[in-house]
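Session log. Operator J.P. requested a structure for one protein chain; no other inputs attached. Running the standard single-chain path with C-alpha cell output.
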Amino acid sequence: MYTSYAQQRAILNTGARRKSVLLIAGMAVALTFMMPDEDLVLLSVGLAAAIGAIGLNLVTGYAGQISLGHAFFVGLGAYTASCLGATGPGREVALGWDGLVWFPAAFVLTGVVGVVLAPVAVRLRGLYLAIVTLGLVLIGVHFFRELTHITGGAGLGRSGPSFTFAGFELDVDRNFLGLVMTGEQISYLFVLIVMIAMAACASNLVRSRLGRAFAAIRDRDLVADPMGIDPFRVKMTAFGVSSAYAGAAGALLAAITGYIEPSGFGLSMSIQYLAMILLGGLASISGSIAGALFITVLPRLSQSLAGLLPFMDDSGSGAGLLTAFQLEQILYGLLIVLFVLVEPGGLVGIWNRIRSYWRSFPFTY
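Structure written below.
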C-alpha cells in the first residue's frame, strides 16, 4: 500500500521489483566469471548497443518521433572518441587522451549536433521525418568515407580509442587481491556499470515533467500546445538527448572493438537499432536493453544455424542457398513483422503478459 505519490512513482516501487532487479544485476555480474572472454566481448557490445537503443527509444518510443538517422550519431560518437583517445602513429588524428575526456566529449558533441540538426527534423512528422533522418545517414556515410584523415577511409578504417579511464587500462589483465581478471572481464564490468547508470538516468527522465511532455507530444502534439507544452522545444530536447546517448554508445563500441570502418554506420545499423526497440518494446527502458542484447546475439545464432541446416553455406564457396549474413537479414525482417503483428509490446510485452497471468492465478478471469 502506497502512502505518498513519491512512493507510488518510484522506479522500484514494489518489493518484487526490487528483488528482481537485484537478481538480474547479480546474474549479470556473475556472468563475468562464468562465460569465456569471447562471449563477454559480445555481451559488452550488446550492453553498449543498449545505450544507443535507449536513446532511440526516448525519441521514438516516448516522444513519438520516427528516426532512421541513429547510425549517423553512433558513428559521430565513435569517431569523436577515436580522434581524441586513439594512440600510436598513423595518418589519422590520434590525440591519445584519457577516457575521462573522450567519453564525455563524444556524449556532449553528438548531443549538440542533434540539437543543431533538430530544427530541420522537428517541423516534420511521420514518413517525412523518417525520410529526412534517412538522408542524414546517407550524408554521414559519404563524409565518413571522404574524411580519411579522421576515419581512415572506406575499406581501411581506423583504430578505436584506448580503453583507459583515469590512467587505468581496462583491457589489460590484472590481479585484484589474488583474483586474476582478464581485460575482457574488466571491460565487461565497466560497460555494465555505465549502461546501468545511463539506463537509470533515462528512467528518471521519462518519469519527470519533461518525460510527461514527451508522452503528450507523442499522443497528440496539437493538443499538447494549448496545455502549455512547447512542441518545438520538447522535440528538440528529445533529439538532443537521443543523439547524446547514441554518441556514448558509439564511443564505447569503438573502444570495445578497437576498430571502426565508415560502412559500418550505414542504413543497416539504423535498421538494427530500430529492430532493437521494436523487438524489445517501445517506450520501455528495459525493453531497449533486452532488444539490444537479443539483436547482438542474433548473428551468433545465424552462424550456428549455418552449420546445422543443409541448405546453408557456411564456407563462403557459394554452394548453399543462403549465407549466414543473408539468414541474419531474413531473421531481422521476420522478427519485426512477427512482433508488430502478434506482440506489439515486444519482449517486455510478453513478460508483462506472463507476470499478469501468474499475479492473478488461479483466478485468471
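Operator note: The mean pLDDT is 89.
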